[in-house]
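W.,

You were right to be curious about this one. When I first looked at the sequence I had no strong expectations either way, so I just let the prediction run and decided to look at it fresh. Below is the sequence, 487 residues in total, followed by the output.
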Amino acid sequence: MPPESTYVEPQAKKNIISRSQLEARCKAGEILIVINQKVYKLDKWIKHHPGGQLAIRHCIGRDCTDEFKALHPSYVLEKKIKYFEIADYLPRDSDSEFAPIIGSRARTNEEIFEAQSAQVSAAYRQLELRLKAENLFETNYINYAWEFARYLTLFTMAIVLNLYGTCTMHYMASALCLALFWHQVSFFAHDAGHNSISHNLQIDNGIGIFLADFLGGLSIGWWKKSHYVHHIVTNHPIHDPDIQHLPFFAVTTRIFQGFFSTYHQKEMVFDRVAQFFVSYQHYLYYPIMMMGRFNLYVQSMVFLATEPNYPYRKQEMFGLFIYWIWYPYFVMQLPTWNLAIAYIFISHMFTFMLHVQITLSHFGMSTEDLGDTESFAAKMLRTTMDVDCPRWLDWFHGGLQFQAIHHLFPRMPRHNLRDAQPFVIEFCEEVGLTYHIHGFAKGNQIVYTALKDVADQVGFFLEVAKHEAKEYVDAQKIVLPEAKKDL
């Protein structure tokens, strides 16, 4: 048998796989996905997927046309994946070749929901064509020129104030400039991770390694693995790593039961430590965000040490090696240990705004699982919130305050997201979906309220669990018959 990666000329009569056959073969262990009503077998390719294996595994056995197109350039569909096609897909099984003119039964709620989802998907695909016609998927490199000037200014100020400063105020200003540099350059690294700068995988990956690893001490590979999964299963408590933050945060009471994280491949336990932190999570939200960058160091190192088949491990490890030389050396130029320690904490803690911006769009949104038939567009708009701000402030948010639009079109340059907003609003009105957008302060209030609502239910959950445990113990007791007095 030739390998799946070898192109085979189609036969006169193409194979057809029905929904029940697809489910059966996936349950048997095959890695099959559906794109544009065609079935692709990815068993041998999955370990080489640039976006990681999990991104594919979340698509096994279902139609992932919209997810695939959103996260891949068109040439992948046109030229690459065709080698893995094995059959056409028949969405519904049927005992008869002909359907009755008048249906013999009413449609189920599931069928109605599936039909509505299909309508939303069709409208979403038309929206994408319209945005392409408006050239909103084209990169305007003048925007990056302005951004590069901002990055260079901030990094230069951090160096000058550190090396030539004469007082504490100069040194702490340097730390703030470095924090703002890391905050801003993260948006550029984000674009590299989505291959939306040069639109060339190798070039953008090189840019990402330089920005994230060499300059920031973080693994772009770890970010891509986590972020691509987040884009596919947004706000799913079991699958989305971006809302799996035990023992510190729980964005839904479903987490109280504990669960197995498919991303972290371990049990997430709602133990006493988690119960304590979650009870106060609305108060701890901002302080923990200030510690976020330290956690990213750990995640990056764990990824590079353990991720199998990662092709850029050596390049990234070299990047982190260089980072852990230049940054400590840079800090050690300060005149005292106290200033050095203060510099480390200020430069790291004041990147907290990036973590707030990331969590703001999702922590207060729906975490329900509406099933595989929910359209990609509906799920993204249900689980994601945009932040409203004046155009002149776009630089601070990197243009990514339009997270809902970004989730609909991950490969659209972030500088164009604002211009795409009117089209998205029109689309939502057309198909009856809600476009969630609030000001920055209101968004923070929504997140605070959502965290507090969950925190307030910890006590009730523990009381219920205690009561159920007592009932179970009482039910297990063996009641001995009363001893006879005549013995």
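Here's what jumped out at me. Residues 472 and 478 are 12 Å apart (CA to CA). And, maybe more interesting for your project: Residues 141-358 form one domain.

Coffee later to discuss?

I.
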